[in-house]
Amino acid sequence: MACAVSILLRELADELALVDVMEDKLKGEMMDLQHGSLFLKTPKIVADKVDVLTYVTWKLSGLPKHRVIGSGTNLDSARFRFLMAEKLGIHPSSFNGWILGEHGDTSVPVWSGANVAGVNLQTLNPDIGTDSDSENWMETHKMVVDSAYEVIKLKGYTNWAIGLSVADLTESLMRNMNRIHPVSTMVQGMYGISDEVYLSVPCVLNNGGVASVVNVTLTEEEVAQLQNSAETLWDIQKDLQDL
Q1: Strand pairing class (115-116; 95-96)
Q2: What is the pLDDT of residues 95-125, one digit of tens each?
Q3: Which of 40, 80, 239, 243 has the smallest count of CB within 10 Å of its CB?
Q4: Confidence (pTM)
Q5: If residue 200 lies in a helix (H) or strand (E), which one and from where to where?
């Protein structure tokens, strides 16, 4: 619902459709938003039932792969930029860094590309993100992975950050902005990944979906971590091959 409210407040669509398996709650949320429609600029708010993963959606929809994306590590990267920038004493928008791969425990921080105003942090600290890093930057990535669990432990769920993240992605799509986001897309054939898996890599998003994928230069270790991320997902997805 935070996704829905964030999209509504950004005035991105003429019609908003809510989808969930909990039919009563879904209808209640739809009605609640409809009652506030006088204060919104989205004239039509509707709801219906489904519960699927990005991969399953792609398989069942028959849509081309560039038209089906997941929010992926867009939020992970936002958390990473926030935490890194906080440690550096700058605004998150002034720190450039990516979390790629799986949205979860096997996500990959791209230390080789982390920079401030073009100044590469790995050049300043060759051990950044490793066990031998005296500045312990690896702890920042651990905080990214653990942060969702921490919020869930404290308030029971996460909602506002992912809502704002999804609205940000929606804006790039609806307004044809050609902005780059780390979102979940079909990565078969990239970085030595042979399986049909969806993982997050930097993608140019516009009103056609994924316009192109940015071929990020990764270290051998980062490629290995990305492949490990793919294997983790494939272990889950391989049982869905009959779709």
Answers
A1: antiparallel
A2: 999 999 988 788 999 999 999 999 999 999 9
A3: 239
A4: 0.90
A5: strand 198-206
Domain limits for position 45: 2-51
pLDDT for residue 215 is more than 80 = yes
pLDDT digit string, tens, across residues 133-179: 999 999 999 999 999 999 999 999 999 999 999 999 999 999 999 99
The domain total for the chain is 2
Whether the Cβ atoms of residue 226 and residue 190 lie closer than 8 Å to each other: no
DSSP-H helix ranges across the chain = 2-9, 23-35, 54-61, 74-88, 121-124, 138-155, 160-174, 220-237
Within this chain, do residues 92 and 42 fall inside the same structural domain, yes or no? no
Does a structural domain hold residue 58?
Answer: no
In a domain? residue 236 = yes
| Residue 103 among the catalytic residues | yes
Q: Same domain, yes or no, for 119 and 36?
A: no
Active-site annotation holder among 91, 103, 141, 181: 103
Biggest CA-to-CA distance, the chain = 58
**Based on the domain organization, do 78 and 47 belong to the same domain?**
no
